[in-house]
Amino acid sequence: MPVTVKSVRPSNHAGELHGLYTLHEDGRCKVEVWMRTAQQSRVVAYKTFLRTLLHEVCHHLDYSHYELTNSYHCEGFFCRESDLVRKLAAPTEKPEKIAAPKPASAAPAPKKPPQLSFDF
Questions:
Q1: Number of structural domains the chain divides into
Q2: Counting CB atoms within 10 angstroms of each CB, which of 21, 63, 76, 95 has the fewest?
Q3: How far is CA 29 from CA 8, 47, 58, 60, in A?
Q4: pLDDT-based confidence at 3, cuts 50/70/90?
Q5: Is residue 103 included in any domain, yes or no?
Q6: pTM tops 0.90
């Protein structure tokens, strides 16, 4: 499946086009995504770009893997999209602060050797 990254998003009175999945009657398909906003030509955020690309990949999976006749923007579609984004995107939150070390007097309890049992 060819993927084309284009510059400035096309827009009209309805809004901006972020990505487009095209499935031709002969089975060929293509994905187009835009990397700059329509109004100010700013580069879109990484996570927004990734979500758009994965959104179009979900359309492709609907047709090619699930063999659906239509790829609707339903709850299940957006759940699959969000799941892929969570699995592939790096966390954007700052890591939690590391707790201060425990005082030296609080020695850890000795570890017990593992208990093995065999039932024959």
A1: 1
A2: 95
A3: 22, 24, 13, 8
A4: very high
A5: no
A6: no
